[in-house]
Design goal:
alpha+beta, two-stranded antiparallel ribbon, 6 strands
């Protein structure tokens, strides 16, 4: 980072959660490059904040050097390939369900899915959809409203392929239950 600039302060944030698939560990760091002293107050505030938050246990802390310095390069290529395949699989599974429109992930560990709420009977919005899906099919997804994307939901791409297939099967069952039959609607309007 220091080689990038001798005048502009830079905060670099990183962590283990995404790259090593350990979100529960809550291990992250901030590197401060401050050649002109602009971040003195920020550094002090970050140090105070770091003493308020609970960190990972000592076993996790002890594993960090090996994770960072002994992980072979092949791990990253294999992980990226695996997540890419799983992302495409989840996209295809959800893309086959009437009333849902997935957006392909581009580097994220999740995909966003549009819910065409008007195609579903009794589903009011993304929160209602997510709550019913959890209750009826034991599938947890995050309503898009919490990301300021109403009538979308977020689905992670991390489960193994056999679980993604099961998710697709259960979602299809769920959506079929609430899907408005367009043929029946069209027939009724003609009568």
């Amino acid at each position: 980072v220091a080689s990038l600039t001798k005048k502009v302060p830079i905060l670099t944030l990183s962590g283990l959660s995404k790259q090593y698939l350990v979100p529960g560990w809550r291990v992250g760091w901030i590197v401060i490059h401050d050649p002109i002293g602009a971040f003195i107050k920020i550094r002090t505030a970050l140090q105070k904040l770091s003493t308020l938050l609970l960190g990972p246990n000592t076993l996790i802390q002890a594993s960090i050097p090996s994770i960072l310095f002994e992980t072979p390069d092949s791990y990253y290529d294999e992980l990226n390939d695996k997540l890419h395949r799983q992302s495409l699989l989840l996209y295809d599974e959800i893309g086959d369900i009437d009333g849902l429109e997935p957006i392909k992930a581009r580097g994220a560990m999740y995909l966003m899915v549009k819910i065409h709420v008007k195609k579903f009977n009794g589903i009011n919005d993304d929160i209602d959809f997510a709550n019913r899906l959890l209750k009826e099919q034991a599938i947890l997804c995050l309503p898009g409203t919490i990301f300021n994307m109403p009538n979308y939901f977020r689905a992670v791409i991390c489960p193994p392929p056999h679980i993604i297939h099961e998710i697709g099967k259960r979602m299809k069952t769920f959506c079929s239950k609430y899907l408005i039959d367009n043929n029946q609607t069209n027939l009724s309007s003609k009568l």
